[in-house]
Structure to design on (257 residues):
């Protein structure tokens, strides 16, 4: 029986090794790329699994992994956790992670990096709205490189920085404000702040492992459902750091990878 993160009462007590053991079934599946993952996600929803449920499992998994790496590096509750979220569902996973980390006791800054005032998908929007009522969470929306330069000034004070900007690679160079958000993450890494990426480090293609510029280099990447070919490729593996593969509740009938 697979332990889904949102239904696992002991998840936040596990260290990184314990999480790897807990999710060994997902890690043992054959790897696939971003298009196959998008298809599995879409078919799961067509079979009746709500997108909110998939996002909840993903975000809870990320939160547990962030807590585990923070404890392993003696940084848990030693500063705010900064979560940089893009406008799509990768950012939505970050909003869910923010909620669960705050409930575990952390101070969290959840940053929507977008020219628009709201996320671009319904599921991400609902999880952004839910943060408004949470204690220990500061919600911030940044729309420009100038906004992000202000955010970068104190980034070394963060205990962990989470990359929830983009869920797969991009063609060509990154554009602002996402580009400047990646620069914030790179500044944090230079200051020895651990970096956790959701699904893939921003600008690393989940299928090929190719990277755009600039690119996030993570200490830990939490990807979902199956290993990804891009994170096993030489460059992708170098940029992903350690990789955890978390189940999110995609049924076997939706999985054709």
């Amino acid at each position: 029986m697979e332990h889904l993160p949102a239904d696992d009462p002991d998840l936040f007590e596990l260290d990184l090794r314990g999480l790897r053991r807990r999710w060994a079934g997902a890690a043992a599946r054959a790897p696939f790329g971003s298009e196959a993952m998008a298809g599995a996600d879409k078919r799961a929803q067509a079979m009746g699994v709500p997108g909110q449920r998939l996002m909840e499992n993903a975000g809870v998994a990320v939160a547990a992994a962030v807590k585990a790496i923070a404890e392993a590096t003696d940084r848990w509750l030693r500063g705010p956790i900064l979560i940089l979220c893009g406008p799509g569902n990768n950012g939505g996973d970050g909003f869910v992670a923010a909620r669960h980390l705050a409930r575990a006791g952390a101070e969290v800054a959840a940053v929507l990096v977008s020219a628009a005032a709201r996320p671009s998908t319904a599921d991400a929007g609902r999880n952004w709205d839910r943060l408004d009522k949470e204690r220990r969470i500061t919600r911030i929306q940044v729309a420009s490189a100038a906004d992000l330069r202000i955010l970068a000034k104190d980034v070394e004070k963060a205990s962990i920085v989470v990359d929830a900007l983009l869920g797969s690679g991009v063609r060509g160079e990154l554009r602002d404000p996402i580009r400047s958000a990646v620069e914030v993450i790179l500044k944090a890494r230079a200051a020895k702040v651990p970096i956790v990426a959701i699904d893939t480090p921003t600008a690393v293609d989940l299928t090929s492992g190719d990277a755009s510029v600039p690119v996030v280099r993570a200490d830990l990447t939490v990807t979902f459902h199956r290993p990804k070919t891009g994170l096993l490729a030489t460059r992708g593996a170098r940029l992903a750091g350690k990789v955890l593969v978390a189940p999110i509740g995609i049924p076997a009938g939706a999985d054709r990878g």
Summary: The first helix runs from residue 16 to 22.
